[in-house]
Known about the structure:
The chain is of the alpha/beta class. The chain contains 12 helices and 18 strands.
Amino acid sequence: MIFRENHIDMKRIVxxxxxxxxxxxxxxxxxxxxxxxxxxxxxxxIIEPYLAxxxxxxxIEQDTLLHFVFYGTAGSVSVNGNLQHWNNPVPLERIPCxxxxxxHKTFVVPSDARLDYQFIVDGKVTLDPHNxxxxxxxxxxxxxxxxxGSVPSPYLFVRNDIPRGTIDSLPAAKIPAxxxxxxxxxxxxxxYKPAGYDTLSHLPTIYIHDGFEAITFAHxxxxxxxxxxxxxxxxxIAVFIPPVNRQDEYAGSRTEQFVKYLxxxxxxxxxxxxxxxxxxxxxxxxxISGGGHISLYAGLRRxxxxxxxxxxxSTITPWLIDLTKQRFASNSISxxxxxxxxxxxxxxxxxxxxxxAFNFLRLNRNYSNLLSSLHIPHYYKEVNDGHEWANWRxxxxxxxxxxxGAHL
Length: 408
């Protein structure tokens, strides 16, 4: 969008709000029709005041109409994001407007959807330059489209009127280089302690995979501060664990080794250093994507250590399914175990609709159905969102309340 400065007198200033209100009241489709019916050299005078009145993009109408717009000198513009499952960028339609061009594309989406997206302008990936809402991502920043029914969790924002916890850093152990290839425990750890820690004891513990990203992108310490202050959960210890070899540890050749490290090395270390409640009922393990897989897997494999397991947009593998069935068959799933699952309806899926290996929604839905068929209690939720940190952090308060607070 491009806005030129013009000299205007006071009478025009008085009339300007009324004029902008009139422009804003026009439907997007009406403006497009006016542009298409007007000569190219006159279109600039139609579109620029309308965009100035709207101020920001994307343009949202009737709760479910999402209009992506780009106005400038580009030759081609596409949009890619959750609506495309990040697979197939969709070209925006072009209307020449004299010096510039308007690019646009309309989608009908759920009224409570929250979506990440990026533009591809003349082959270059970029944020929407007229959208101030930017979300964090492990793949760089994304622009955000939030529909009117998508209300942010009240626990995501820093409050200056409540006590805040502190974070310790535990350095990685010094292990000779030849042994590092065989050991999975060599990594720094960060540990959240709640406000007033020195006066507390018997604290529940949450172990978080992709832990450093959960601090940076999900602001999880802030969420925990707010939940504690609101008395939605008791004071807790949170252990932020970074991966070293993410694929192999979370869902690959080192998974069993990694579970052993978590249960037999890390948990005893944390219980020794901090004022925890050393009970499986008071320990939770959570993660996103592959981190969700290792959380669910570790909870089922070592329920003597973890009785709360949460996965968001979890990778669901055949060996997780087999382990679930084996644990059920051997009657070794505790009735006290809590399993939490959520997944986005705009989550990752492969380009082939029949390819289940990368269809996260279908896999998570099927896994929830498996748990239900085996009468294994769990909580499962689908949301109109994608495979993004901005999605997962919205749901983290619900997950922690499910484990340690009032039931949802």
